[in-house]
Design brief:
By secondary structure, chain A is α+β, with helices and mostly antiparallel strands. In chain A, about 35% of the residues lie in helices and about 15% in strands. Chain A folds into 2 domains: about 1-75, Ubiquitin-like (UB roll); about 85-155, DNA polymerase, domain 1. The chains are: A alpha+beta, B alpha+beta.
Chain lengths: ~160, ~280
């Protein structure tokens, strides 16, 4: 077992895990944060996307021991300080940017990554940003609309 | 939790990693892990010991020297794609990287990892072969350099020994300007591995005559191949669609495609020709 200490959504947490534990399993099972979804577990679907040191990565494609000492943000980190849905979450609700909801946390993390780099993205940039996130309900049009709304609201807020 | 158990060593320097690799039977290195982790989850790879290169600071970085663009092996694909130095000095690589995976995989995946892995249709090995990059292999007995055209021995197989770590890749810089690049591929979805991919870099003189040509194809042979006969036919020519259509047929002689789940050998040959024509015309400035 290895001791792993990382910052997750701004909080420092420590837990032990075998080296073969994926960051995804660690987040869900050891830290009890279940917004990050387990989809394909081999890097294809994007449901497990998290921010690692400020950039989006797939948490199924790294081991938790590799995140030791690093900074992780999950979809839970998109909530406001009082626990209410943050702007990105709220925009997905507004546009109903989901059908079954399984891909949604990954989509929102990808949205956060996009909008922190590019506050006024074109539709092509939006499509590129979620290109690695599969929605098997194929409800992409409303997801793109949700991202447009989120971008507008975040721009209006600044 | 899907992989078989393994010991984990977080290497703090290249020497530390090489020593760990030499000290453990069946140890392998993990770079970005974007291919290795799925292979371990499916137990296609089952190392007893994993040596992690991710915390070795001096295995990352992009620099230029007089003749080469130096990219350290652990440089993330996203950094290479965003690099102004790469865009200026080796524009073909920038163009190719936009076809490699997605934002999330490029943030983790490395340039050296893709070359070391050697998927027959991967874009980065294709560029390395097209431009005849130099590949450094470090071991406890020193560092040797292998030309990209001599690096592969088959799909996923290279001359890298088990005790060696790919430490740097150097792409030759074409001095003199007037460079055009073309990168074309066909894949089931953007970001997937290519069925066939073609990389072209051409250099022209002031009269728009082609004075240097690199053309390579991936996905239609066990490893990417240069189309030397086609390159020779481009030399000294002003390039247009009629010329390219006339000379493209020679690529048939370097391709050896096979049927697989994604496409038949015949389809790969046919599409290789179309993509090569498009890539050359894209590069013809």
């Amino acid at each position: 077992m290895s001791e792993i200490k990382l910052t997750i959504n701004g909080v420092t947490r420590t837990a032990s895990a075998e080296p073969r534990t994926s960051l995804l399993d660690f987040i869900r099972e050891h830290l009890g944060l279940t917004a990050t979804h387990m989809g394909c577990e081999h890097g294809v679907c994007g449901a497990c996307s998290v921010m690692l040191d400020g950039v989006p990565v797939r948490s199924c494609l790294m081991f938790a021991v590799q995140a030791d000492g690093h900074d992780v943000m999950t979809a839970e980190g998109l909530r406001d300080a009082d626990g209410a849905p943050g702007v990105i979450m709220d925009s997905f609700i507004e546009a109903h940017g989901m059908q079954c909801g399984y891909c949604t946390p990954g989509m929102m993390v990808a949205t956060h990554a996009l909008l922190s780099q590019s506050p006024d993205p074109t539709d092509d940039e939006i499509r590129e940003a979620i290109g690695g996130n599969l929605c098997r309900c194929t409800g992409y049009a409303q997801i793109i609309e949700a991202i447009r709304i989120a971008a507008q609201r975040l721009r209006d807020a600044t | 939790m899907k992989p078989a158990p393994f010991d984990y060593i977080k290497a703090t320097s290249l020497d530390h990693a090489l020593a760990a690799l030499a000290a453990h039977d069946d140890a392998i290195v993990i770079a970005g892990g974007q291919t290795l982790v799925p292979m371990m989850a499916m137990r296609l790879a089952r190392p007893s010991c994993l040596v992690d290169l991710n915390e070795i600071a001096d295995l990352s970085g992009i620099e230029t020297s007089e003749k080469y663009l130096h990219i350290r092996a652990m440089t993330r694909q996203a950094k290479v794609l965003a690099s102004d130095i790469v865009r200026t000095k080796v524009p073909l690589l920038t163009k190719a990287l936009s076809f490699v995976g997605h934002t999330q995989t490029r943030n983790r995946g490395t340039l050296g990892g893709s070359i070391a892995h050697g998927d027959p249709s991967a874009e980065i090995p294709l560029c390395a072969i097209a431009l005849n990059a130099e590949i450094d292999l470090a071991s406890q007995s020193g560092t040797r350099t292998v030309a990209a055209c001599n690096f592969y021995e088959g799909p996923l197989m290279s001359v890298r020994r088990a005790d060696e770590i790919l430490s740097e890749v150097r792409f030759p810089i074409w001095e003199g300007g007037n460079i055009g690049t073309g990168f074309q591929e066909i894949s089931p979805r953007h970001g997937d591995f290519a069925i066939v991919a073609v990389a072209v870099q051409l250099q022209f003189d002031a009269d728009n005559i082609c004075r240097r040509a690199a053309v390579a194809l991936g996905g239609a042979s066990p490893n990417p191949v240069r189309a030397a006969e086609l390159e020779a036919a481009l030399y000294g020519q002003r390039i247009d669609a009629a010329l390219v259509a006339k000379i493209v047929g020679s690529i048939d002689r370097v391709l050896s495609p096979t049927d697989d789940l994604h496409a038949s050998a015949a389809y790969r040959r046919r599409v290789a020709k179309s993509l090569t024509m498009r890539a050359i015309l894209e590069a013809a400035i």
